[in-house]
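Quick one, T. Sequence first:
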Amino acid sequence: MKSPEDLRQRLAQQWQKSGVRLKQLLNPAAWPWELSIGRPSARCFNTRISELQRHVEAWRGVSIGRVEWSSASFRNGAEKINFPSKWCLRTPSEWVTATGDKSIIEEYEALGYLVEHVPEHFHKLLIARRLLWKERSSDEVIQAAVLASKLTPGCAKGQPLRLLSGYGVDTKFFERNDALLRKLLDVLFEGEASEQSLCGFLDAYDETNHWVLVVPLEAGLLPFKRQKVTTSELAQVALPGARLLVVENEKCLHHLLDVPGTVAILGCGLDLEWLGSTWHREKAVAYWGDMDTWGLQMLARARVKHGEVTSLLMSKAAFDKHKRGSAVKELVRAQDTPPPGLTDSEAELFCLLVKRTKGRLEQEFIPQQDVHEALQAWVTSSIKYYGPSSCY
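Structure tokens:
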């Protein structure tokens, strides 16, 4: 048999689980919520009658929800007895009140206020990720939701976030709410803000520094096999070798092979301002990203920043070759029209992907052999263009 206190503790524990909160707060079919109290055993009736009486009286004193009662007779009993069998909670507010936990009650009230004032598409995030808003004022969270709804990819146009104007927030707002804004934007843009960092996604000058993975593709070219470096540092140093390979996602490192005179930069996202540095102006640059509107937007930005950029495996032929079984729907597009910086054939691919139901092919689904062949072809073409010295 479970006492009211036993089930109160259980209800409080359930509140801490994001999956339970999502189910109970977003699914009307989850109500009423019935919790089993349990049936007294014959032994309890025969030897612990006073304990049973206290148990019954405790449940008679419960006024939240509805307590269901059952009756049963026991071997030594003269007549049937009534005992509590189920506790039925009919609404989320009854659940929260039933916990008797002041902090949960206050949290539920704050969550209710937020849900009332932010767009519906953010509700699931706020319910599941309490730590994003618990220590912030409700008004600031609402302001962040309004701001996230206004922001678009690349809207900072190279400015520091604190200098963005026209959004109704103070200069420190982005800094205070970086994690919250990223997660809100992830809801709208399929996780791209977290994938690229807030600055990379908005094309903002990163005063806090965006870290990327630097990997020499020739042994001895750098004094390390791989290292995290900030993009602000990349803009200020001359890297060895004659070639730079820019790869959208870090997880594609295992696809690469040894390439003479080449350094790979992985995980830049839209943070490609560093490519415009004079230190990299004379290098042969190749870009390899996902075949979707985001990947092509990043390719376009790389070309705008540097000038001469060769795209690898980002063509209609590559898409047609690998789309079967690998292409998926792009839930949120970067934009609907080709960005400046694409070649005619790349812009044609962009328009094709926008029209297709499954217009997204992630780069990790390209077979390693095809990646190796593309890299070798790029090396050959860059030797012709830059001369034999580009091997070193």
